[in-house]
Design a protein that fits this description.
This protein is α/β, with parallel strands linked by helices and 774 residues long. It has 16 helices and 36 strands. Strand 3, helix 5 and strand 4 form a beta-alpha-beta unit. One of its GO terms (biological process) is signal transduction.
Length: 774
């Protein structure tokens, strides 16, 4: 079952970060996986490609982890011998917790249970780590080392509990293809086209062009990934270069590193050049050119530089730029004339060395996007008074930023603001609350931020507010006037009380995280759909749910003092629920548990997850050890069969895909149910329901049934037949749906070896299978 933490709105530098033990897999599996990812167009970070050996590698690796959308961990036999690898792993799991990043473990010739419990090939490595601690004579040095080893163990357990891939003597090429497909699906939520993000004058014509190309199968879009036919690629390059095959300075879009370097080194650029992109992946591979190389590029509209240095005056720099993207901007102060760009729409200076913004710049009246994120030396924001059309502002991870210019209150079109991880930002100017157009404000992990300005309630367009990880103790008095607020995340040790939320009529998602001193959650608006509460160890009182008729997801984790959720299971709320998760809620009453388990009407890819200490309830009809249950259907006695309730307690993870097989040995039919990427929760109680309409079982009294649960080694499995009670189908938000297959006149081969022959009525010649996908 999936669990979600808030993630900051950000632009990633990499799609995939690969964590691996070089001695085991660098020149084999990992290099092949890296090549496959690159061939599929993914930006994959791997240390041997992106960092010089012998350099100060660790800070760059940690930064790359933070800036990657997915971390892929290749657990191999000697992975745990490397403290470097284990520190990487701790950082990866921290980013999963803080930023909601995806993590995909790969168990390369190692048993997942050995990784989870640090046994087998990992036991010796940890013995050596702990022996080293015992040899340490200095008590002050010994304690941090003990803490470090404890963090390693926790990170290994957490990672091994995630859905992943166990590779053991199978065809490596096939395994890599499957893994790349998995990564593609995890990334499929990204936008297909970002033209509107950085408009360059062709917005209105993009979709008609795409439609024509799709019609002729010259481009395809799969899982958010644009694929272009080789002929189109070559045709584009031919068209660009055919006028001057040997003179890339006359091409409108020089496309390879060699051609671009030649143009800039020899200053051979002409007014034909409209787009120039020189991307170097890290600060270790800088390039330096003169600004004179750009003087003749009069029509340059899009310039993308990455860790490139330019020396000289910017007085005659091209003035037609719409998009200026310069990652690793080398200057501490904005060079004169650089921003004399009246048509500039987007300015992206991520990872810059700037200490402060510009002074007395000319108006940038068309600028809509300003990105200074990860500029770790930046202490003050620039003056915004000459940016009348600015819509998006990103200062995330500007760790020295302490002051925002009050002119921010003049940005009447600003809609999206990101101050995440601005560690030294103590306050927002009062003028900020004048902005009636802002829809998103994120201040995650602004550790010095103690309050939000009074007047916040005037921000009538604010829809999303993220304050997790701040030092805020209470909200402004007019907080309840944020009538447009839809998503709110709060959290941190400083919270003792939450503001009144019941008046926020449009609030649909609330996240309460790590409030260690919070004892009660106040009444919630009845329109709320999603509630996440995490690690609030003092929390005792939950709000009344009896009128929460729109609730879809309730996810509670680490609330040892909570005994019940009042009204859940008795009122309207349970009828709308798709997913209930209560992990680390070890004090729930038996009456409350039975109310939600027996009152559950949802069928589909959600479910209920509880701690396994409660066991399988006594009222389940058919219970067996292991992952298989066999039973005879009782007589219907006029009742209508509606579906199945299944529960199980998994012991060990085997595959990332969950599957149920329901075999009617009497009628020779098999129904299979699949769900991709089921998150493994070892030792937790799971309950799901499947309807007869989905399974097409049509059971009758006396039918002999076998049910098998795949994906886990299971301690116990329970089955209930649902009679007469109506079951509701609804999509679980953010999850993978179930897929159903139905086979008539077919019984799987494994059944013959495990089911008594006197219960089988199969003919000697196996009938032809008829499969129907539902």
């Amino acid at each position: 079952m999936t669990s979600r933490e808030p993630s900051s709105s950000k632009l990633w530098s990499y799609d995939v970060f690969l964590s691996f033990r070089g001695e085991d897999t660098r020149h084999g599996f990992t290099s092949h996986l890296h090549a496959a990812l690159q061939n599929r167009g993914f930006a994959a970070f791997i240390d041997e490609d992106n960092l010089k050996r012998g350099g100060e590698i660790k800070p760059e690796l940690l930064r790359a982890i933070e800036e990657s959308r997915i971390s892929v961990i290749v657990f191999s036999k000697s992975y745990a011998e490397s403290s470097w690898c284990l520190d990487e792993l701790v950082k990866i799991m921290e980013c999963r917790e803080r930023l909601g990043q995806q993590v995909l473990p790969i168990f390369y010739h190692v048993d997942p249970s050995h990784v989870r419990k640090q046994e087998g090939c990992l036991a010796g490595a940890f013995q050596e780590h702990e022996d080293g601690i015992l040899k340490e004579k200095d008590e002050k040095e010994r304690e941090p080392k003990k803490k470090r080893v404890k963090q390693w163990r926790e990170a290994l357990t957490q990672a091994a509990n995630l859905s992943g891939h166990h590779l053991n003597n199978g065809p490596e090429a096939k395994d890599i293809k499957t893994i790349v497909g998995n990564i593609r699906e995890l990334l499929r939520g990204t936008d297909e086209f970002q033209v509107a993000k950085y408009p360059v004058g062709i917005d209105s014509r993009v979709q008609p062009i795409i439609s024509v190309l799709r019609e002729w199968y010259l481009i395809t879009v799969e899982w958010g990934e644009l694929k272009m036919h080789d002929l189109i690629q070559e045709m584009g390059k031919t068209i660009i270069s055919e006028k001057s095959p040997t003179q890339p300075g006359r091409w409108s879009r020089p496309w390879n590193l060699e051609a671009i370097t030649d143009v800039l080194t020899n200053k051979s650029g002409t007014e034909e050049i409209e787009v120039l992109s020189l991307h170097l992946p890290s600060p270790e591979k800088k390039a330096s050119f003169r600004t004179k190389a750009f003087v003749n590029m009069k029509k340059l509209r899009l310039l993308r530089l990455s860790y490139v240095e330019l020396a000289g005056s910017f007085k005659h720099f091209p003035k037609e730029l719409r998009w200026l993207c310069w990652h690793g901007f080398p200057f501490e102060y904005m060079p004169e004339h650089l921003l004399n760009q009246p048509k500039l729409v987007a300015l992206d200076l991520r990872f810059s060395n700037l200490r402060k913004g510009w002074k007395n710049s000319k108006p940038l009246e068309n600028l809509k996007i300003l990105d200074f994120s990860h500029s770790k030396k930046l202490k003050k924001s620039p003056d915004f008074s000459r940016l009348p059309n600015l819509g998006e502002l990103d200062f995330s991870s500007c760790r020295s930023l302490s002051k925002i210019h009050p002119s921010i209150g003049q940005l009447k079109k600003l809609s999206w603001v990101n101050f995440n991880f601005c560690n030294k930002l103590r306050y927002l100017p009062a003028e900020f609350c004048k902005l009636k157009s802002v829809e998103t404000l994120d201040v995650f992990y602004c550790e010095a931020l103690r309050e939000l300005p009074e007047g916040l309630g005037k921000m009538v367009s604010l829809r999303k507010l993220g304050t997790y990880g701040t030092a805020i103790k209470q909200f402004p008095n007019d907080f309840g006037r944020l009538i447009s607020l839809q998503v709110l995340s709060v959290g941190g040790a400083s919270y003792r009380n939450l503001p009144s939320l019941s008046g926020l009529s449009n609030l649909v998602e609330l996240l309460v995280l790590n409030c260690k001193n919070l004892r009660a959650i106040p009444d919630l608006p009845t329109n709320l759909e999603i509630l996440y509460v995490r690690r609030c160890i003092a929390l005792e009182t939950m709000p009344d749910f009896s009128q929460m008729s729109n609730m879809i997801v309730l996810s509670l984790n680490g609330l040892p003092k909570v005994t019940e959720v009042p009204g859940l299971g008795l009122g309207k709320s349970l009828n709308s629920m798709v997913h209930i998760e209560m992990r680390g809620c070890t004090n729930l009453t038996a009456e409350f548990r039975n109310n939600i388990l027996q009152g559950w009407t949802y069928c589909g890819a959600g479910g209920i997850l509880l701690d396994a200490i409660y066991g399988i309830p006594e009222w389940f009809e058919f219970v067996a050890d292991g992952n298989k249950v066999s039973f005879d259907v009782p007589q219907c006695d006029g009742r209508n069969f509606k579906g199945l309730t299944l529960c199980w307690v998994p012991r060990q993870f085997k595959t990332e895909n969950l599957a149920f097989t329901v075999v009617n040995c009497t009628k020779h039919t098999t129904s299979r149910v699949f769900r991709r990427f089921w998150e493994h929760n070892e030792g937790k109680f799971h309950q799901v329901q499947l309807s007869n309409d989905q399974l097409k079982l049509n059971l009758q009294g006396g039918d002999k049934i076998v049910i098998l649960i795949e994906a886990f080694e299971v301690e116990r499995t329970g089955v209930n037949l649902v009679w007469d009670k109506p079951l509701k189908e609804q999509r679980f938000p953010g999850s993978y749906d179930y897929y159903f297959e139905y086979e008539s006149e077919a019984v799987p081969d494994w059944l013959y070896d495990s089911h008594p022959t006197n219960q089988m009525t199969a003919a000697t010649d196996e009938p032809k299978r008829k499969r129907q996908k539902v």
